[in-house]
Amino acid sequence: MKIIKSLLTAFAIAFTNQVSGQQTDKIETDWQNSIVLLDITRKNHNFRIPWDKRAQSVSKFGVVIKDKELITTATGLANHTLIRIQKGGRGKWTNGKVNWIDYQANLAVLGVESDDFWKDLKPVKFAESKKLKKNLQVIRWRGGNIEKRAAEFSRFTVADANFNQAPRIELKASSEIEGAGQAELMVSGDKVIGLVASKISGTCSVIPAPFITDVIRLRESNNYNGLGYFDFIWQPASNPAVTDYFKLEGEPRGVLVIKPGEKSPLKLHDIILEVDGFPIDIQGDYLDPDFGHVIMEYLACRHKWAGDIVNFKIWRDGKIKEIEFKLPKADFSDNLVTDRPNDVEPTYLIVGGLVFVPLSAEFLSSWGGDWQRSAPFRLVFYNNQKANKDQKSLVVLSLVLPDFYNIGYQQRSSQNIVIEKANGKLIASLDDLAQAIKSPKDGFHIFEFKKGSTLKKIILNAEKLDEANQRITKRYGIPKLQKLK
Fold first, then answer.
1. Potential cystine with 353: which of 226, 254, 401, 425 (Cβ 3.0-4.6 Å)?
2. pLDDT single digits (tens) 137-194
3. What is the structure's pLDDT at 334?
4. N-term to C-term CA, the chain
């Protein structure tokens, strides 16, 4: 009798394992039919040496969504010349194309014209906001097989969408997977949690499923207007003296506006108490029903987009008031540091071996993902400044190409400094600089740099400039002395 019970128990265990194995294989098969490999060839521009153009190959992943389309991150797609797509982890490559892209949202939708490509491929299912934390795995193709690595939820945070200040929610999860950050899938069970946008020091930054599905839905209905943002600057009201000074009644709460946006209905020293009905605490956070305590900037993109109305409750002049705030589009054209379209080639102007470039988001990003620390301090400082009517943008002396014409200015102190004037004219763009070069002062070109720069002036002989330019372009293989637009 005991032997029969033992056999029955063993049979039950074996049957359970077999069923479990079949379920596991089924889930794996689902991912095999939903994840594709992307091979992208692109022109990789060096914004510090702007005439240097090299072909770069980018490998990443895409995932099948409905209507015979793929979604991936926008990273690596700028200035692309060819997109090849492979399904099944091996074999034939098929040419693809970008159907839609938003670099600030860091999402792109790809298409393939061949109907044969879509055979056996299945769209994925995205998880709801309440189911983003448990049983996480990172899934990708590797060596022709599906690779899975466990991940552990850490927190939700509000991150800049690209380089600028446009917000979106981001999921942080720790994982031991190596080399991630190429739009790998983060999944839970048979649902997609999000796309892995980057990985630093063991922590994956993930674009979460609710944000992705919102974008897909709005794009399908032709109602996607891009990301909006709060264009004002605030400070926490954590010091009780702040609320006491402005005679705010009740418990300390809210944040203090210290710089309203140009078209904002907010005023200096307004205290923001609520945004869309969510109370704001003295740190500038609110309790989100899906993501817990997050900074209030997320309320600019919590199911909101550029042009949408956000309702504010504020304390102004001793009274509570309610105002409507129309979200501006996050194009940041009024920033002192320009943030140009990602598919635009770099511009530059070379004068006697002095290489001038715009102070742009791309230029700062050339110092890597941690540019806030690794880029020159003074250049990073300008990133937080708004343009003014006299100087809407800035121009940087990126480097000096050594030649006896510019001898004495070839040290590192002559690099990465912002020009203020050329031949007595205020410089806000490369066009300004090109015009100033036409009018030397007493036979010399005089370049003056911003206060606090390591170098105050550069003085060059105007009469010998053309000769020097010809020699320098030939020596360094530079095709053009300038590219202004």
1. 401
2. 999 999 999 999 999 999 999 976 544 557 889 999 999 999 999 999 999 999 999 9
3. 65
4. 89
pTM of the model: 0.81
- Rounded Cα gap, residues 430 and 340, in angstroms: 15
How big is the chain by its Cα radius of gyration, in Å? 28
- Mean pLDDT, the chain, rounded, equals 88
> pLDDT higher for 387 or 397?
397
The predicted pLDDT at position 9 comes to 46
Rounded CA-CA distance 440/172 in Å is 55
> Is beta strand 203-208 parallel, antiparallel or unpaired with respect to 167-175?
antiparallel
Please name the amino acid found at residue 301: C
Q: Of the candidates 115, 39, 107, which has an alpha carbon nearest to the alpha carbon of residue 70?
A: 107
Structure tokens at 347: 């511009």
- Distance CA(448)–CA(403), nearest Å, equals 20
Q: How many CA atoms lie within 13 A of 115 on its CB side?
A: 0
Instruction: Categorise residue 8: left if φ over 0, alpha if ψ from -120 to 50, beta otherwise.
Output: alpha
Range 418-421, long-range pairs (CB < 8 A, 24+ positions): 418/359, 418/378, 418/379, 418/382, 418/394, 418/449, 418/450, 418/453, 419/356, 419/394, 419/395, 419/447, 419/448, 419/449, 419/450, 420/448, 420/449, 420/450, 420/451, 421/446, 421/447, 421/448
CA angle, corner 308, sides to 304 and 313, nearest 5?
90
The tokens for 10 are 């063993």
Cβ-in-10-Å burial (0-12, 13-18, 19+) of 251 comes to exposed
- pLDDT (tens digit per residue) in 61-116: 999 998 899 999 999 998 899 999 999 998 899 999 999 999 889 999 999 988 89
Domains in the chain: ranges and CATH: 35-118 (2.40.10.10), 136-220 (2.40.10.10), 233-326 (2.30.42.10), 348-483 (3.20.190.20)
Task: Name which residue leads in pLDDT, 14 or 98.
Answer: 98
For residues 106-145, one letter each, b for 16 or more C-beta atoms within 10 angstroms of the residue's C-beta and e for the rest, the string is bbbbbbbeeeebeeebebbebbebeebbeebbbbbbeeee
Query: 408: left (phi > 0), else alpha (psi -120 to 50), else beta?
Result: left
Instruction: Record the tokens describing residue 315, joined without a space.
Output: 């304390």
